[in-house]
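A reminder from the course coordinator: this example appears on the midterm review sheet, so study it carefully.

Given structure:
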């Protein structure tokens, strides 16, 4: 199984970006999925998650500006509006997946860089 992110880039403050994460490979079911970010010299923090039933959870710093969504199959998206310089960092996709004959486990993407300039 692989998670591949795309959509990162550089943008000025106030701008928007849309990140996508595609899960490929064989898996039976996808549970909670989410986005995390790691700023320079900082730990990796929660940005947003969405459960299999559609329940969402957002980090305090992005509430009202970011929107997480998922399709019925394997794509997780993050719409980021009103971006601020402090949103700069590497954004990682995470998915809790069930593979045949294996227990549930988390999978991570390789990350995509987002840079917001003042």
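Designed residues:
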């Amino acid at each position: 199984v692989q998670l591949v992110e795309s959509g990162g880039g550089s943008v000025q403050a106030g701008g928007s970006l849309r990140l996508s994460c595609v899960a490929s490979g064989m898996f039976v079911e996808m549970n909670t999925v989410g986005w995390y970010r790691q700023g320079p010299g900082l730990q990796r923090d929660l940005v947003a998650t969405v459960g299999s039933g559609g329940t969402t959870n957002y980090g305090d710093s992005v509430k009202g500006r970011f929107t997480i969504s998922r399709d019925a199959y394997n794509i997780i998206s993050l719409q980021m509006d009103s971006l601020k310089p402090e949103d700069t960092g590497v954004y990682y996709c995470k998915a809790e997946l069930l593979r045949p004959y294996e227990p549930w486990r988390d999978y991570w993407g390789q990350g995509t860089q987002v840079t917001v300039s003042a």
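Residues 58 and 75 are 18 Å apart (CA to CA). The chain has a mean pLDDT of 96.
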